[in-house]
Structures are given as C-alpha cells and as structure tokens.
Amino acid sequence: MKKRLRYFLLSVLSLGIFLFVWYLITDILGIFPERALPSPTKILTTLMKKFTQRAPDGGTMLEHIWASLKLAMYGFALGAVIGIPVGIVMAWYRKADLFITPLFNFIRPIPPIAWIPLMLIFFGIGQTAKAAVIFVSTVTQCILNSYLGIKQTKDVHRWVATTFGASNTQILFKVAIPSALPMIFTGLSLSMNLAWMTLVAAEMLAADKGLGYLIQYARMMARVDLVIAGMIMITIIGAILNAVLTKIEHSVVKGRHME
Amino acid sequence: MEYTGKIKPIIQCKNICKTFRTKETSLDVLQDFSLDVKENEFVVLLGPGQCGKTTLMNIIAGIEPSTSGEIIFEDVPITRPNPSLGMVYQTTGLFPWFTVMKNVDFGPRMKRMPAKERKEKAQYFIDLVGLTGFENSYPIKLSGGMRQRVGIARAYCNDPKVMLMDEPFGHLDAQTRYSMQDAIQDIWSKEKRTVIFITNNIEEAVFLADRIVIMTNCPSRVKTEVRIDLPRPRDYVSRQFLEYREEVSRLFESTK
Amino acid sequence: MSEPKKRNNNFAGSKSEVIVMAVFAFACFFCVWYLVSLNERIGKFFPNPIVVLESFFQAFVTPIGQNTMLEHIFYSLRRVTTGFLLGAFIGIPLGLVMACSKTLRALLMPLFSIVRPIPGLAWIPLAILWFGLGESSKYFLICMTALVGITVQTYHGALNVDPLHIGAARMLGANNFQLFTNVIIRSAIPYIFAGLQGSFAGAWCAVIAAEMIRSDEGVGWIIFNGMNYANTTQVIAGMLAIGIVGLITSALLRALERSFCKWNIQGK
C-alpha cells in the first residue's frame, strides 16, 4: 500500500515539475519567445477567453465545437447505420460475400483522408463534402468490424441453435449478431476516433468553422497559444466521445466473458 | 520426521505456513508443513486438488515467500530462485520463441558456458529424453508429451541437485501419461537426482516414488507417509504394486 | 418447417468460384462506372475508368507537376519511413522501460498520458509553427502519430509477459539483464509488431494529410493538386496510388512479422 502511494506521488511530482519547468522557461526566464512556446497560463487564459471571443477567426470556441461535432456525428451515424448491416449481410450470405468483398477490399486500403479531394470536387466546399468523407471512413470501418464479428461466430453456438430448429435468419439474429457485438462496438469506437480525426483534417483543408479550421487559422496567424488551446479542445471532445461510447457499450454488451 | 542413520537431508521444509490475504478474507493454504528429503530420493507429494501443492513448490523454489517457516537447502535457507534447483511445470513453461535446443541449453547459456560445451551438454539431455532430431523445432510444433520432455531436459541441463516437478503430466492424455511415467523412470535411473514430484494420481505416485507423502486438505500439512519398497522397473499390475496402491488409496481417501 | 440448411461459415468452397465471382464483381463495377461516366452531367465528376487507368500508368512516364509517379511515391515513402522509424526508435524503448521499471513508469506515464489522446493530425498546425514548412515538420508529425500506438502496444506486450516464463528463467539462473533480453523483449515481439502495423496505417494517413496541406511533391500532393484544378482523373489516379502503396507496405510489414514470429502460429 505504501509503495502504491509512493508511485502515485512520483507521478504527481513528475506532472508538477513538467508544468513548473514549462512555466519557468516561458513566463519567467523567457527562454522561448512567446510565439514559439507560450506559457501554460497564457494557453489557459486563451482557452477561457475563446469561449466568448470571436477574434481572430470569427467564431467562439463553442461555435467551433458545435460545428465540428454536428458534422462528425452526422457522418458517423449515417456510416454506422449503413455500414453495420452491410457488414453483417456480407458475412452471413455467401453470394453477398463473394460479390461485395473483393470490391470492398479494393476500397479499403485508401485512407479516409485521401477521399477529401474527390468529395470536395463532387460537393464543393461545404458541409456535405466533409460529411461524405466521414461517412466513407465510418462505413468502411464498420463494415470491416461487423464482417469480422459475424465471421467469427462459434460453430458450436450455431450447431446448438440448429439442433433447436432455428432457421437461418433466426440464427443470425439470436446467435451471430449478439456474439458479434463486442467486435461491432470495437468497430464503432475505431470509426469514432477515425471520424473525429478525419474531420479535423478536412476542416483544416476546406472550411470556415470548426475546430480543425480554428487551429489552421490560428497557425496562419502564428498564434501558438490558440493552436494549443484548439488542440486541447479537440483532444477533450475526442475523449468525451470515447467515454460515451464505452458507457453505451457496457450497458448493451453484457455477460460477455464466460469462456 | 525420522531419517535413517546419520544421512543428512539435502533439502528440508521446516514448518512452512502460507496464508493468502485479501481485504475481506484470509486463506490458510499451508500449515506447519514439514518434510525432509534425502539426496537422490524420489519423493512424491500426493494430495487432493487445490490444496496448495503448487504454492509449496513455488516456496521451495524460492519464487514465493512463505508466511512463516523456511526451506533449508544444503544448510542454507532459500529466499530467492536458486539454479541448483530445477523445476518442471505442469504447463511446461517452455520459451515459445526459442527452439528446443535453445530452451534446453538456456541454463548453461545464462552461466555463459562456451558454445561447444553447451551444445554437447544440451544434446546429451535431448537424446536422453528421446527427442533426438527435434533440436531445431519450435515448441509450438511439438505434442504435449514432447514438450514436457523438453521441459525435463531443460531442467536437467542446468545441473540441479534437486528437481521439482509440479504435476508435469497433468495436462496429458492417459496414453501419453503412461509413456511419460516410463520415461521419467528411465531417465531418473540413468541420471539420478533428488526429486520432489507432485501429483494427485495414486497410480503414478506408487509407480514413481521411493516415498509417498500424503497431504491433507486445505490447510495442508503432512498426513502420513508410505515407503514404496519395490524394485525398479516397476510393474503396474504386479501383486505388490496393487497392494501398495490399495494401501495408499485407503490412506488418501481418508484425508478427504 | 424446411430442414435447416447446413451452414458452412468458412466459404472455402472452391477457390475458382471465389475468383470468378471477384472478377464478375469488378466487371460489374467497371461497367457501371463506365456507363455513369458517359452521362453528360455526372460524367464531369466520374471520368471514364479507362481514361483513369490510362493516366495512372501514364504518370509513371510523364510527370505530374515536377515528378513522375514513381518519384512522388518515393518522396512519400521516404517521409513516412523516416517519421515511422523515428517513432519506433523512441516508442519501443519507451514502452519497454515503462513496463519494466515502476519508478520510470510513475515518472513518465503522466506525461505520456497527456500526449496520448491527441489525434495525430491535430499536431499539423503546431508542427508547422515549430518546424516550418519543410520536411522536419512532416517527420515530426509522422513520428508523433506513430509513437503513441507503438508505445502503448509495446508497453502492454512487455507488461503481459507470462510470469511462468519469468519464474522459469530465474530458476535457470538468468539475471535481470538476461531476463530482459531473453524473455521480456522476445515475449513482447508479437505485440510490438501489432503496434507497428497499426501505427503504420496511421502514419500513412499522416503523410497524405501533411502533403495535402503543404508540400510540392508526394502522392498526397497529387490528389490535392488534382483537386485544385478539378482534375478528377488525377485525383482518382492518386487515390489508386495511395491505396496500392499502402497495401504493399502493409504486406511487407506482415511478411517481416512472420519471419520474426515463426514460433507463434497465431501471430498475436
């Protein structure tokens, strides 16, 4: 017990020293010019102020967060709603598997970011293009994970269901899908992270609001403190989304680890 | 425990107690376990399942500390792993990333024995356990019985004075188990060492042991001992074997 | 009720059936694409697939911008490899050290936990501000993207060493250093490779993103440039290149893993 306390204190100390040294070399000693590395206090104040200030980019932090979140959720939800069933169907029905899987494997290696230019050409600079990119990335990941999840349905479970007289569809819904849920949720969480990251990148390239746009604009204005503040916000929102997803997963996927 | 004449035991367990404590409960696994083992004696610890036999092995090996009591090996207490003791595990504990040869010569390699000497020594033991030709195979390609043979060769190759074997055949099927018992008897007759062997199989115990130590349920201690005075190689179906077996069985059942 | 059909989930079937269906699927795909590209309105966005393929192969001979396709690929690969190796050289030791030393873990983990959740691409503006618009900012970005995944996986691998193996090694006389090199690192190798593979995909994304945002060559530049001139053909050709190179490098990494992990059938 004592040992654990010691290590905990060591961690706290480490964090404290880090922040202190940072503060020291910026505010007090001024080794790094403000434009390269602002002090932690400056970043914090910028972050706080940005919640209400519109300068220099034309939107408050909340407006940016909301813009990004809206887009990410929209693309993500659409992608999941379509991707998961498609993946399940592909894995369960042989004809679908043979036909769709080769095409899917062709699309898959293309990183989601690489879709941005194409979507921008199709849809122009607007929200739709970005939503489309997020949709593609989510759909790909969800299909993949749902497919794998269904494919690894245990033979034993299928045989038991068959001997009870279950039809193919019944086995799908009562055996395959529930046993694939952990994998499906993994796919959702991977897509979530991917969607969030892709969105930020897309906003850096072509947008006029959103967190990605914010940090890109701040970069062009050489406002390091704003860039870091934006990064902090991006990270926090990403972490919150993850936590929410995990919570949902825990309540849906119960009684998993018997073997 | 009496020992005949003035033969000093090579390894002794003196009043070993082990208690596992959690926040709510405490579990006494071993209580006042004492045992003296003579050099080159084949001692079998026979006990019901889940009664701390593996814990006892770990304590003797120096991997786990006892709550009280000590292990004396050649007049020195054991407090940490000692290469003079060799251990064979139920799940073999082979290093999957090393070939058979590199598993077997691991001990000498740690001692920085020169390569040629090392190879010869390892080859001797690989041949002894009957795995000639498999030197460059990886454990994943071997059957359970073969893997256990590698484990035995690996333990032997480090020149231990005492071999600890923790239910080494527990995970093998019946057929393989019989052949491994034969193999152990054969290997041990060619390379005698002190052996402390754990099992819950009565037949196995009577087949292998010079002396069977029967353990009680949790918290475990020595219930009684039976000397097996049968010449080797032993026969599972000889009259004396079956008599011993019945006696041990009777004593064993009465501990439950 | 009809007799339950015997389900074979493996679809092993006959290999030729799989190939035939795949070819059929691609044929359908191309036909649909071709037909769509003929349409006046949509055809603007969907160039003729034959044209796309032609221009893809053409790019190996005639340069897009200043460089041929191969040269672009080379630039991108060089960037991603440098950044990735940098990330691995920092991440693997970092993960090992944090797993093996409780003290260093207590010191380093909080700092690592701050960096860890930051999405790789969010580093781009900061990287440019700190390192300028040249190659260093890209190396930094790719390094940061790869570092997190590699460190985490290495850490878990080293932490999950079977205590039985540690006990066995100790009984056979291994000291701390020998334990580390013969048991801990070896045991962690499958995890390390998992980390390398996962992070490489992210690093490849990072390169593309970095090239789209600021560069003059590379496969990311190809699609960005194509976008700026509404040259869909170039964009799709670029996407093809990106996908293919990504596939090849992944396959190479997997082959490397197989040779390092001969002893482990499942691989992970």
Q: Structural class of the helices, strands and pairings of chain C?
A: mainly alpha
Order of helices and strands of chain C: HHHHHHHHHHH
Main sheet: strand order of chain B: 6-7-8-3-9-10
Provide the helix percentage of chain C. over 70%
Q: How would you describe this protein?
A:
The complex is a heterotrimer of chains A (259), B (256) and C (268). By secondary structure, chain A is mostly helical. Chain A has helices at 2-28, 40-50, 61-92, 94-107, 115-123, 127-151, 155-163, 168-205, 211-220, 224-252. The radius of gyration of chain A is 23 Å and the shape is flat. The mean pLDDT of chain A is 86. The longest helix of chain B is centred in the C-terminal third of the chain and has 17 residues, at 174-190. Chain B is of the alpha/beta class and 256 residues long. In chain B, strand 1 (11-21) and strand 2 form a beta hairpin. The two termini of chain B are 23 Å apart. With 268 residues, chain C is mainly alpha-helical. Chain C has two domains: 1-46; 47-267, MetI-like (MetI-like fold, Orthogonal Bundle). Chains in contact: A-C, B-C. Chains A and C meet through helix 1, helix 4, helix 5, helix 7 and helix 8 of A and helix 1, helix 5, helix 6, helix 9 and helix 10 of C.
Secondary-structure map with pairings?
The complex is a heterotrimer of chains A (259), B (256) and C (268).
Chain A: H1 2-28, H2 40-50, H3 61-92, H4 94-107, H5 115-123, H6 127-151, H7 155-163, H8 168-205, H9 211-220, H10 224-252
Chain B: E1 11-21, E2 26-37, E3 42-46, H1 53-61, E4 68-73, E5 76-77, E6 85-88, H2 100-104, H3 106-110, H4 115-128, H5 144-157, E7 162-166, H6 174-190, E8 194-199, H7 202-208, E9 211-215, E10 222-227, H8 239-253
Parallel strand pairs in B: 3-8, 3-9, 6-7, 7-8
Antiparallel strand pairs in B: 1-2, 1-4, 4-5, 9-10
Helix pairs in contact in B: 4-5, 7-8
Chain C: H1 15-38, H2 40-43, H3 49-58, H4 69-100, H5 102-115, H6 124-131, H7 135-159, H8 163-171, H9 176-213, H10 219-228, H11 232-260
